[in-house]
Design brief:
It comes from Nymphaea colorata. With about 750 residues, the protein is mainly α. The protein is built from 44 helices and two strands. Strands 1-2 form a two-stranded antiparallel sheet. It starts with 12 loop residues before the first helix and ends with a helix.
């Protein structure tokens, strides 16, 4: 069949219209036919429709149109946009003679894909270059974070222009070098180079990134002077600036005044609602958009991912496909992150298949989310395979592999990756430190932090979050206080994120006074910080204060979460406030629409059982709407040992054994109950059962910090280098306590009973 008889499989309206136009054009009219072919190539490029593009390429070659420069360049651009490296190389070689546009396209293609050696070689071979050549190289280097190399190319440009200066400013902003962006902008103006709308868009983003919002207002005068205040792109940036200033009303006025609103305008306004925490209102605005495209769909999907609703993001993706839109690079990156968050390997693999189909699997912005998705699904081999086939491995991809191995408890592999990484940044250090903390190797994590400082890396909030967590895990108050001091030196404020980490560290290290001070000094508190303080008070035996703080939280109109109620119910249990505990438990669903989970039910069992209401506690467990947790039966069994109820204890122990066959705690508790009742035959029976099952009592462990070093001790442990002196001192203390008991000042039996109960 002839080319005209073939039907394009693509559903794109653009391609179908382009094909119809080509069919209506007379091939004898060379210029008109070449123009129609060029338009169809452009449509294929915009839709990444490489199959249709290749079909058209064959027809163009047959018609002898490849010798036309216009058609050959459109063909080249189509293959570049479709990320087909081999096809674009062949198309470039077929372009007749030297044409600077074709060479610039190839330089940009290589640079944008991280193939800098090929890009440099082309530049060296070019008979002539222009500002676009240099700018393409600068933009590519900036994309991959090679700011220093980009600066070198910028300085080599014979004559600077607004295009090259804007590329540098945009690159600085893209890589977080906001101050450098502002300096470059001022130097540009001093040279007499007038900024354009793209420059202003970038510099406003720089002010937003630097959080120099008030200073950002200063560019408004220049924008008005140049008559650009009504430009849609600048208006969009100003909307973002005012959103960051929390001036949503001003942002809305700018939006309403715009005579022409594009997709970016709607998206910027949508972000204003997201920033204000009104995701539902953002969705309403999205649904009202008169025209949607891939960018608007991608923006809304990304917002759901960023705000912890990956399931809704995937659901919206289904609606996007139903509306006839295909995902772009940004959409696919967000969707892979959503699949990773849900640990949905099936969805992730389907997305990977689509990525391979359209030929973008080697893109740096796809590689990292793919690695993350496979890692979070427990498939580190597949993640490593994705990493290995990438032609250019950015630092982001290396960091993703380190995080992936750590997430799956493969610390040896994570460490190897960290040692082999060509260029470390603060994220690399944070990834390996967090990995050791997550896998409970806290001492090693703190050692790596010291190595990081020796390497000259400056810690940030994420670093301190991990190190404070490590200090909390080993209850190292001295080290935690040192980190607090470092934070103050670096000017890291008590925001929600760091304030919560600090108070958690102090609370778990037993310094509840410092935890209180941190909490009260926090300039902003959210439900997470309130919950952390409520739990801290409850854990440190200040249950009544914990409940008072919860009441204060409600007065401040902060909505509690599931974790908040866990802390409150725990506090009620330790205060014996049964009625109040019932009130809070019932209010979870009736007032806050939070469905109680297994842990909440276990807290209620503990509350009832501690108060001696053992029968009521057992009935409560049996009436649960789902399978009770082992902790519920353990709480009941522990209360039975305190209140001496053998009958309920036996039933609770049996259920606990069914749920946790390898846990010795239930056996030991029941054995102690029998021993207290003098049922020695039953004690022997339980001990035999434990022996047959190979169960042993977990040894008690305690630790103490002396001179910034944590010393841990197990029951019967003689491995400490000072164990002889330690046991000698312990014997002396024991003798003193026995003398005090004989004198009637203490009862050792009571102390032993309390220790076993806890």
């Amino acid at each position: 069949p002839s080319f005209y008889d073939q039907k394009f499989s693509c559903s794109s309206v653009k391609i179908k219209d382009g094909f119809k136009r080509l069919c209506r054009t007379d091939p004898q009219n060379f210029n008109a036919y070449a123009d129609a072919c060029g338009s169809l190539f452009k449509a294929c490029a915009s839709e990444s429709a490489i199959s249709e593009g290749r079909l058209l390429h064959g027809h163009v070659a047959k018609m002898g149109l490849c010798s036309d420069t216009f058609v050959s360049i459109k063909l080249l651009i189509m293959y570049i946009k479709c990320s087909s490296t081999m096809d674009s190389s062949r198309a470039f070689n077929d372009v007749p003679g030297f044409h600077v546009v074709a060479w610039n396209c190839m330089v940009a293609s290589h640079a944008e894909s991280g193939r800098f050696d090929e890009a440099r070689k082309l530049i060296e071979e070019m008979p002539q270059t222009n500002i676009i050549t240099w700018t393409a190289m600068i933009s590519g280097l900036m994309k991959f974070g090679r700011v220093g190399d980009a600066m070198e190319y910028f300085e080599r440009i014979p004559e600077q222009s607004v295009v090259s200066c804007t590329a540098m400013i945009s690159g600085y902003v893209q890589n977080g070098y906001y101050e450098d962006a502002l300096i470059a902008f001022l130097e540009m103006v001093e040279r007499g180079i007038m900024p354009n709308m793209f420059t202003f868009v970038s510099i406003i983003s720089g002010y937003v990134g630097l959080r120099a919002f008030e200073v950002g207002r200063s560019v408004l005068t220049m924008i008005v002077k140049l008559g650009l205040e009504h430009d849609p792109s600048i208006c969009n940036s100003l909307i973002t600036l005012h959103v960051r200033l929390r001036e949503v009303d001003v942002a809305r006025r700018i939006f309403d005044r715009m005579s022409t609103k594009n997709v970016v305008s709607w998206t910027a306004m949508l972000d204003s609602y997201v920033e204000a925490g009104e995701l539902d209102e953002a969705r309403r605005l999205f649904d009202e958009m008169p025209h949607k495209n891939e960018i608007s769909w991608s923006a809304m999907i990304a917002r759901y991912c960023q705000h912890g609703d990956p399931a809704e993001a995937l659901d919206l993706y289904g609606q996007m496909l139903s509306s006839g839109f295909n995902p772009n690079l940004s959409t696919l990156s967000s969707l892979l992150s959503a699949a990773a968050s849900l640990e949905s390997l099936n969805v992730g693999m389907k997305l990977h298949g689509y990525v391979v189909k359209i030929g973008i699997e080697n893109d740096v912005f796809i590689g990292s989310p793919l690695i993350d998705m496979y890692s979070k699904s427990g498939k580190t081999r597949d993640a490593r395979q994705v990493f290995e086939i990438m032609p250019y491995k950015s630092t982001v991809c290396w960091n993703s592999m380190i995080t992936g191995y750590s997430y799956n408890n493969e610390l040896e592999e994570a460490t190897k990756m960290f040692d082999e990484i060509p260029e470390r940044n603060i994220v690399s250090w944070n990834a390996i430190i967090a990995g050791y903390v997550q896998n409970e190797h806290c001492e090693r994590a703190l050692e790596i932090f010291n190595e990081m400082q020796l390497a000259g890396a400056i810690p940030n909030m994420s670093t301190f979050s991990s190190t404070l967590r490590a200090c909390a895990s080993v209850a190292s108050l001295e080290k935690g206080s040192n980190f607090h001091g470092k934070m103050v030196k670096l000017g890291i404020q008590y925001g929600v994120f760091m304030g919560t980490a600090l108070l958690d560290m102090y609370a778990k290290s037993g310094d509840i006074t410092s935890a209180r001070q941190v909490f009260r000094r926090m300039t902003e508190r959210n439900e997470i910080s309130w919950t952390a303080m409520i739990q801290a008070l409850a854990d440190n035996g200040l249950a009544e204060e914990s409940i008072d703080l919860f009441e204060e939280m409600q007065q401040e109109k902060v909505i509690p979460t599931e974790l908040t109620f866990l802390g409150v119910l725990f506090a009620c249990a330790h205060c014996g406030l049964v009625e109040k505990g019932w009130h809070y438990f019932k209010s979870m669903q009736s007032v806050y629409h939070i469905k109680p989970r297994g842990k909440h039910y276990s807290c209620m069992v503990d509350l009832l059982a501690r108060d001696g209401r053992l029968t009521e506690a057992e009935e409560f467990i049996n009436a649960m709407p789902f399978q009770p947790e082992a902790n519920a039966w353990a709480a009941l069994l522990n209360a039975c040992s305190i209140h001496g109820n053998e009958e309920i204890a036996e039933r609770a122990a049996m259920r606990l054994w069914e749920l946790e066959k390898e846990n010795s705690a239930g056996y030991i508790l029941l054995s102690n109950i029998y021993a207290a009742a003098g049922r020695w035959n039953d004690v022997s029976r339980i001990r035999r059962l434990m022996k047959e099952k190979g169960l042993k009592k977990s040894p008690g462990c305690s630790w103490v910090e002396v001179k910034d070093q944590v010393h841990a001790f197990l029951v019967g442990d003689e491995g400490h280098p000072l164990s002889i002196e330690i046991y000698r001192t312990l014997d002396l203390l024991t003798s003193e306590m026995m003398l005090l008991e004989e004198a009637g000042f203490m009862d050792l039996k009571t102390i032993d009973s309390d220790t076993q109960a806890n």
